Amino acid sequence: MTAVNPVLELRNVTKEFPGVRALDCVNIHVGRNEVVGLIGENGAGKSTLVKTLAGIHRIDEGELIFEGEPKSFRSPRDAFNHGLAMVFQEQSIIQTLTVAENIFLGREREFLRFGVIDKRAMNAAAKVELAKVHLDCDPAQKCARLDFAARQMVEIAKALSLDGRLDGDVVILLDEPTSVLERREIDLLFGIIRELKAKASIIFISHRLDEVLEVSDRVYVLRDGAVVHETTSSDASITGLHEHMVGRQLDHQYYRENKQRAAFGNPVLSVRDLSIDDEFSNLSFELAEGEILGLAGVVGSGREAFARCLGGLLPPSGGEVLIDGKPVRLNRPHQAVNSGFGFVPSERKSEGIVTGLSVAENMTLAAGERFSRLGFIRFEKERTECQSWIDRLQIRTPSSKTPMQSLSGGNQQKVVLSKWQIFGSKVAVLDHPTRGIDVGAKEDVYELIREMADQGVAIVLLGDTLEEVIGLSNRILVLRDGEVSASFDAPVGGKPDQLDLISKMV
Fold first, then answer.
1. Fewest Cβ atoms closer than 10 Å to its Cβ: which of 111, 202, 456, 491?
2. Residue-level pLDDT at 147
3. Rounded CA gap, 83 and 160, in Å?
4. What is the largest distance, in Å, between two alpha-carbon atoms of the chain?
5. Beta-carbon neighbour count of residue 273 at 10 Å?
6. Distances, alpha carbon 361 to alpha carbons 337, 378, 384, 392, 400, in Å
7. Please, is 184 exposed, middle or buried when counting C-beta atoms within 10 Å of its C-beta (0-12, 13-18, 19+)?
């Protein structure tokens, strides 16, 4: 397909990292005032492609054509100044700076008055950018005070600040911008994108295929670093796109309900009147070996705070938690881990992994004693164990020695999950374990969750969607305003309807 008035092109672009060809002779084009969707499994090359456009990676072979001329951006700042702005999948917000300082980071000279930054002028300008994303917050407050979704809107506002600043074309690169947003916020973002089309072009990456079809004009599918399919959104279907992404049809047992346990072992987790002031109060339940308990609720219902409490990140203000009938302390993460909890956080980059360490080091981080003797690490034992998990979970990595930062988001998440399997946690707290990963990687994660349950691990699950919570859980608790508003059994063949849950959530 030929774009009308192409503003951006990649011609036969190749990019290699040690042991990996991330992009393989990629050809794409983006027309003026067009939204182009970019999809593919984790590791397919999506993030590498947009990072190449944004000046983070240099092209090994091929050309980047912008506004009809070959370009080679030296840095993200260089790309930004030419008209390409990127909203990262893993946020680049600096939480110790204010909202306004983040929006205009690197552009402080625009607000200099007699050698001093005019904070009042900067805050006023930030207000204008925040209005574009309908975010009502004080531009002078620190970003650390905002929740994840609000920080994501600040990221988008920063990218949109290009609008009106340049005379030339503007291209916005959105890498998984909706992964932490509620439906209301997603609708708002899509409205912004439609408004922005009148004066900019957009590349939109999402693992949610329905969103890609809803907001995009055309879609490219990447697999193993190459473009394998291009289509208009009007001619595409979710099923067809999935098949092009993974090279196979979507498994009709997507949530592996045929492997859902009907009988459980002994009670392992008891929660009695657990509370955190201003978050949730008097939560009580029991969870048995091999049982999956889903938590449903809107943002602010208390479920995220409850998950972080079990992970030792938010100390309880009242109540108690027992493992195998024995009270445990949850004032620190190490206390939760030593008590038998494994916590998979929703913010993978900042809390789930150590990017500078290798895949193997991340996998064995919680179970170091198992791989040491007389104070020395037994590297061969560690390598053998980690390689077995890499093969079992189909983690795409050149080796177990590869730095975690080189892996895609979905493969990083598989490493995080394997860490708690290697450690031998009795209770796994999974806070949005499939956030930001594609449908193929999700299938692998669902398979692992079922395997964990079969091995007797008790699981507390906060799903990415209601459908996911219903499909995976044996039992579901609905939280509203910090309290349990309903409880549903969810056996195979007797799953509750989404509307049943929603009626108790709001």
1. 491
2. 81
3. 10
4. 73
5. 12
6. 17, 12, 13, 18, 8
7. exposed
Hunting for tokens 């590791």 — which residue is that? 43
Contact between 36 and 202 (Cβ < 8 Å): yes
How many Cα atoms occupy the beta-carbon half-sphere of 475 within 13 Å? Answer: 16
> SS3 of 434, please?
coil
CA separation for the pair 399, 472 (Å, rounded): 31
pLDDT band at 165 (very low <50, low <70, confident <90, very high): low
Task: Provide the strand spans (E) within 233-331.
Answer: 267-276, 280-288, 292-296, 318-323, 326-328
Strands 341-344 and 116-117: unpaired
Question: Per residue in 341-400, pLDDT tens?
Answer: 999 998 887 788 888 899 999 998 888 777 777 777 788 888 888 999 898 888 888 889
Residue 282, amino acid: N
CA-angle at 298, arms to 132 and 95, nearest 5°: 50
CATH topology agreement for domains 6-246 and 265-505: yes
Residues forming beta bridges with residue 21, ordered by sequence position:
16
- Classify 6-246 by CATH class: alpha beta
Cα distance between residue 175 and residue 172, in whole Å: 10
pLDDT reported for residue 352: 84
Query: For residue 156, what are the CA distances in angstroms to 30, 86, 424?
Result: 20, 8, 40
- Dist. CA 31–CA 13, nearest whole Å: 18
476 forms beta bridges with 294, 488
CA distance 17 to 397: 11
Rounded to 5 degrees, φ, ψ at 327 are -60, 140
CA distance readout (Å), 7 to 46, 149, 171, 193, 279: 19, 30, 8, 17, 48
Task: Tell me which residue has tokens 């990221």.
Answer: 155
Give the residue extent of every domain in the chain.
Answer: 6-246, 265-505
Supply the CATH classification number for the domain 265-505: 3.40.50.300
Q: Residue 485 and residue 156: Cα distance in Å, rounded?
A: 35
User: Which of residues 374 and 29 earns the better pLDDT score?
Assistant: 29
* Residue 447 dihedral angles phi and psi, to the nearest 5°: -60, -45
Tokens of 340: 């038998």
How confident is the prediction for the chain on average, in pLDDT?
88
Residue 472 — very low, low, confident or very high, per pLDDT cuts 50/70/90?
A: very high
Q: Where are the alpha helices (DSSP H) in 455-484?
A: 466-472
